[in-house]
Design goal:
By secondary structure, the protein is α+β, with helices and mostly antiparallel strands. It is built from 27 helices and 30 strands. Helix 1 runs antiparallel to helix 2 and helix 11 runs antiparallel to helix 12.
Length: 1123
């Protein structure tokens, strides 16, 4: 039997149980303290990171935040974890704590602990043993009191894990700048590789400058946008730091300030919002600098332009392939000079005897250059700013036929005055008029050929048609061409091709033998053949002219399209020839015999044209295409004579004439509407592109205004500071892109307004380019560009009205054509043959024309509604008129009426058909009347009048200046000496130069040209004098022009030139007055009326309604609310 445990053993066992309780109690408190400590870490870390970030990671702030954070976290660690771990608790308190947490222990554990303490002072051992056994038994029943702290230990452990996860998540979710701040504060070892997200960079840093120069200091911030940046300067090491605010630069992160007239060295640094740059030093010395710079442009040899010298302009702006000689004069004697170009090897400049240094640059790519001069033995210093090198694109000249630039009919004895105007940014070297009679080789007339540089040239040539031996039906094709040099590789531009058709002096109207029914009018439809052939000639000419703009696949596709179009025209002509050959009518007229001769020749020429187009040679296809057009026009003239000659007795001539006309209608009616629809679609697409291009004008003008304001602010800081042309060059490039779009549209739409817009845009772009120069005129040139942009806006503001007028004019022509078609069909119905078979064929043909006419009316109604919708915003009255005209078509049910009239065309009772035809004629007449009213109602406001007057005055002045230059050149008075800045024009007053008298032919040409200018001013004067606010000296100027025209002797060119110059100066003053008036005028219009039109079929109901209202109103208030 084992021995009973001693009291000491039982005490030891009880002490072990109490020790376990004590450890779990301390662990619980340590876990809870860890939760609070981690929370403190989050709070302290965020505060420290925020402070460091607010002070832009300043090193002293980082150090202070690190020390403060470490102290606070150490205190938190001691308070929340250290103190609970080192706190001493007696066994009795621990026993009471355990019995409180575990009620099943009763008071045994506390009693045993207490009796054990008192046993040492004489208590009964038996009692002590009993209490110890009772306490141990109770503890064993509770697993030695291990259950006491188990739930709280688990809970606190979970809290520690959750808090630790919260710490990690908080760090991960912080912005990068705060995360960097935490890392920098709590991980000192990362400071070496740390990159501050907030940086302050200062330019130019340490620098050596010339005494008395001005220096720009630029500070740039990264990672933040400060409200204020200050520059601190100190002259000498013992000087006092002085503060000066810096001004915002080109963007929100840059700040600038100038240090003017530096006479001694200066230390400087920049500070902002806790950041301070290092201290930099500007050393001031008597450095050499470029006192004068001279650029001599040598243009590519093909241009034939003389060298051009520019003084005190360092920026280079020239065509690719040009060479520029740079000559600089230092302000002191130097041993060498070097030209530094970006990306190239330094160029040693050559010394000249006069103390200047020269070098030559090839303009092949854009960049910058500067001049460096020696200072001391080993130092090269920048003696000039960084000048820009800009490579300009060489554009072909812009040329137009400003007078006689249209298709026309002439007689064989007329004199056609053709005036051509050429524009180029550098030089219009040649101006030529090219014409060809029928299919003969082209002839070229040199209108202008000069070695002198002329950016704008206007010249005229009188084409004496009598000398060409023309006959009715002949065709003269002409166009103009301009080139920027006389070399073979010159850039040239060609206008569209135009035609002069020779018509007879009179019409050969004669009556057939026996009178009878008389000849029926015809000849309308066959003209579509010549018109389509004319369009094909124009298209072929454009393809040949614009060959370089097509790639091979596009060119092949276009030439195939032209070949197919020529083949379709040839098929129609051959069909007419076959029908002529099968009818007896062919033997009755000499005109028909002539047609039988001309049409086959036209077919042969068309076959040759097709062959050349298949070979993809559109230039070689032009002569046979023109020849085919000539034969078609001669056949047309013969056709008219044949129709008139078919007047026979008993009305037979009418049937023959109609039979002849139907030969052409059979072929031409097939694709007529389709052709016209395609043309309308192309026009609308071009108008949309034009509108999109003009919409960008406002934005460009706004940006140019902002650029001018920036230049003015910069000039206030330093009047001698370089303008910095990057923004102006960017705007100029965008404007030049707009010019290219407008030029593409101008080739599709012949419009004087569009050509004027192109000239204004080119002038604005050139002014922007000049604004980048360093000669102090940057702001004035920028303002000139802005004026040009505003002129373009004024022109663009008139575009909607002009577009509306074009749409109304086109609709009017369509309505007129419909009326003529209706009348022609009516005559065809009256002249239908009596034979049943022939009558059936003619009836089917006329019905087919009726159905196409109905479709055309539907298209016209749709287009009128679209025009009305487009005009509603600006031209309310016109929109109402157009909408009323379209409503009239709907009210009259015109398309369906036309279709019904086709069905009853040959009805036994003709009354219905006649009534329908009369209604159709009345409806078509109302359409034409409505379109005429719409055209008259298009608002021609004061602003549009002034804009048009200003454009006409500009054309008048330019024309007179061109006439003056040509007279001076022909008479020898334009050969000025080398010192004349105008190159000879305007130097004719000197008596020291030799001149010759003009020959009679030249005098006659100049007098006639001056008369044309006077007539133009006469028309302008008629408009201006009708304006009560117009200038008052119009009559005097007009009288002077008439006096020069009537009384001046052109045999004395010197006197005429002198009077013309005086007149031009006065006209320019008038132009300036008109421009000022246009700038100040504001035009506005308010729509004050509504459209009260009532459809015809509802008029009776509306009238009855108002009659009921009137009767009810007499009885009292029955209709009081009827309004």
């Amino acid at each position: 039997m084992s021995a009973m445990p001693t009291i000491a053993a039982r005490k030891a066992e009880l002490a072990a149980i109490l020790l376990g309780v004590r450890r779990r109690w301390r662990l619980r408190r340590a876990l809870l303290g860890a939760v609070w400590f981690l929370g403190a870490c989050i709070v302290v870390g965020l505060i420290a990171a925020g402070v460091v970030d607010a002070w832009r990671f300043a090193p002293e702030v980082v150090t202070g935040a690190r020390i403060a954070s470490y102290l606070m976290l150490a205190l938190a660690l001691l308070f929340f974890i250290g103190l609970p771990l080192i706190a001493r608790v007696s066994d009795r308190r621990l026993a009471l704590y355990a019995e409180e947490r575990e009620p099943s222990l009763g008071m045994a554990l506390a009693s045993a602990t207490e009796i054990g303490e008192r046993a040492a002072i004489g208590d009964s051992p038996a009692l002590e043993r009993g209490l110890l056994e009772q306490a141990l038994a109770a503890c064993h029943a509770t697993d030695d009191a291990r259950r006491i702290e188990a739930p709280k230990l688990r809970r606190n452990a979970l809290l520690v894990a959750a808090t630790l996860a919260a710490v990690v998540l908080t760090v991960k979710l912080l912005p990068p700048n705060l995360r960097d701040a935490l890392e920098l504060v709590f991980l000192p070892g990362s400071g070496a590789a740390f990159e501050n997200p907030y940086r302050l960079t200062v330019e130019p840093g340490d620098i050596l400058v010339s005494k008395g120069s001005d220096q720009l200091i630029v500070a740039r911030t990264q990672g933040f946008e400060p409200q204020e940046v200050q520059l601190l300067t100190r002259f000498g090491e013992q000087g006092v730091w002085q503060r000066a605010p810096m001004v915002p630069g080109a963007d929100s992160s840059s700040f600038e300030i100038f240090l003017f007239d530096l006479a001694r060295g200066v230390d400087y640094q920049v500070t902002t919002e806790g950041l301070r740059s290092q201290t930099y030093h500007i050393e001031v010395a008597e450095l050499p600098r470029v006192e004068r710079i001279e650029l001599t442009y040598h243009y590519p040899p093909r241009l034939g332009l003389p060298p051009k010298t520019v003084v005190d302009e360092g920026d280079i702006s020239a065509l690719r392939g040009s060479r520029v000689a740079v000559t600089v004069r230092p302000d002191q004697k130097v041993a060498n000079a070097t030209l530094i170009r970006d990306g190239d090897e330094p160029i040693a400049m050559t010394g000249n005897p006069d103390g200047t240094w020269s070098a030559e640059l090839a303009v092949d790519e854009e960049g910058h250059y500067r001049i460096e001069l020696p200072y001391g033995r080993d130092i090269q210093v920048a003696a000039s700013p960084n000048y820009a090198i800009e490579v300009l694109a060489d554009r072909a000249p812009l040329v137009k036929i400003s007078r006689f630039g249209r298709d026309s009919q002439v007689t064989s004895v007329e004199e056609a005055l053709i005036e051509v105007t050429g524009h180029d940014d550098l030089n219009v070297a040649t101006l030529e008029l090219v014409y060809a009679v029928n299919d003969q080789p082209e002839k070229t007339v040199d209108l202008h050929r000069s070695e002198e540089a002329n950016s704008e040239v206007t010249a005229a040539h009188t084409l004496a048609l009598e000398d060409l031996g023309l006959s009715p039906g002949d065709l003269i094709a002409f166009y103009a061409r301009a080139a920027d040099s006389t070399a073979e590789d010159a850039l040239s531009t060609t206008t569209d091709i135009f035609f002069m058709e020779v018509r007879p002096f009179d019409r050969n109207f004669r009556r057939g033998q026996g009178g009878g029914g008389g000849g029926m009018q015809g000849g309308q439809q066959e003209r579509s053949l010549s018109a389509q052939q004319r369009e094909l000639v124009i298209a072929t000419f454009k393809v040949a002219r614009d060959r370089v703009s097509y790639d091979d696949a596009q060119f092949t596709e276009v030439t195939q399209t032209l070949e197919n179009a020529q083949a379709r025209i040839r098929d129609r002509v051959q069909a007419i020839i076959r029908r002529i050959g099968t009818r007896n009518v062919m033997q009755r007229s000499a005109g028909i015999q002539r047609m039988r001769e001309e049409l086959p020749q036209a077919v042969d020429a068309m076959k040759e044209t097709e062959q050349r187009l298949l070979e993809e040679s559109p230039a070689e296809a032009l002569p046979p295409a023109r020849k085919a057009l000539q034969h078609l026009q001669r056949a047309e003239a013969a056709f008219r004579d044949a129709q008139i000659a078919f007047g026979r007795s008993s009305g037979g001539g009418a049937r023959d004439a109609e039979d002849l006309a139907n030969l052409f209608r059979l072929e031409m009616d097939k694709l007529r509407n389709k052709y016209e629809s395609v043309q309308r679609g192309n026009w609308q697409q071009g108008s949309k592109q034009l509108d999109e291009t003009l919409d960008k004008l406002k934005e460009l003008a706004r940006r140019q205004q902002q650029e001018i304001e920036r230049l003015e602010r910069r000039a206030l800081l330093d009047p001698n500071a370089p303008s910095g042309g990057g923004s102006q060059r960017a705007l100029a490039e965008q404007l030049e892109e707009m010019v290219r779009r407008l030029e593409r549209l101008s080739r599709e739409q012949q419009s004087a307004e569009l050509r004027n817009l192109i000239r204004q845009a080119q002038a604005a772009a050139q002014a922007m380019r000049r604004a980048t120069d360093q000669n102090g005129n940057g702001i004035s040139d920028a303002r000139a560009a802005l004026d040009r942009l505003r002129n373009m806006q004024r022109l663009a503001d008139g575009q909607p009205s002009r577009k509306l007028r074009r749409g109304i004019d086109q609709a009017s022509r369509r309505a007129q054509r419909l009326a003529e078609e209706h009348a022609d069909i009516g005559r065809g119905v009256e002249a239908m043959a009596q034979e049943e078979e022939a009558r059936g064929k003619e009836k089917a043909r006329l019905q087919s024309r009726k159905l196409r006419m109905a479709e055309e009316v539907r298209d016209l109604e749709t287009d009128l509604r679209k025009l009305a919708k487009d005009a509603a915003a600006d031209e309310a009255r016109t929109a109402r008129t157009l909408r009323g005209t379209a409503d009239g078509i709907e009210r009259d049910d015109l398309p369906n009426t036309i279709e019904r009239s086709a069905a009853v065309m040959d009805a036994p009772s003709g009354e219905t058909s006649q009534r329908m035809e009369a209604e159709i004629g009345e409806s078509l007449a109302r359409i034409g009347q409505g379109l005429d009213e719409a055209a008259e109602s298009v608002d021609d406001g004061e602003e549009q009048k002034r804009t048009r007057n200003l454009a006409q005055m500009r054309a008048l002045v330019e024309g007179l200046e061109s006439l003056e230059r040509r007279m001076a050149q022909r008479s020898g008075l334009g050969q000025a000496g080398p010192g004349d800045p105008r190159g000879g024009w305007g130097a004719a007053d000197s008596q020291s130069w030799m001149h010759r008298n003009l020959d009679p032919q030249e005098i006659d040409a100049f007098r006639r040209d001056f008369a044309e200018r006077r007539a133009l001013f006469d028309r302008i004067a008629g408009v201006l004098t009708a304006d009560e606010h117009g200038p008052r000296d119009i009559g005097r100027l007009l009288g002077e022009m008439r006096e020069i025209e009537q009384n001046e002797s052109f045999e004395d060119p010197q006197r005429v030139l002198q009077r013309q110059r005086q007149l031009i100066a006065k006209l320019k003053e008038l132009e300036l007055a008109l421009k000022s008036e246009s700038d100040e005028a504001k035009a506005s219009a308010l729509p004050l009326t509504g459209d009260d039109a009532v459809p015809r079929k509802y008029r009776s109901q509306v009238e009855e309604y108002f009659r009921q209202l009137s009767r009810a109103g007499a009885t009292g208030p029955a209709v009081a609310g009827a309004d």
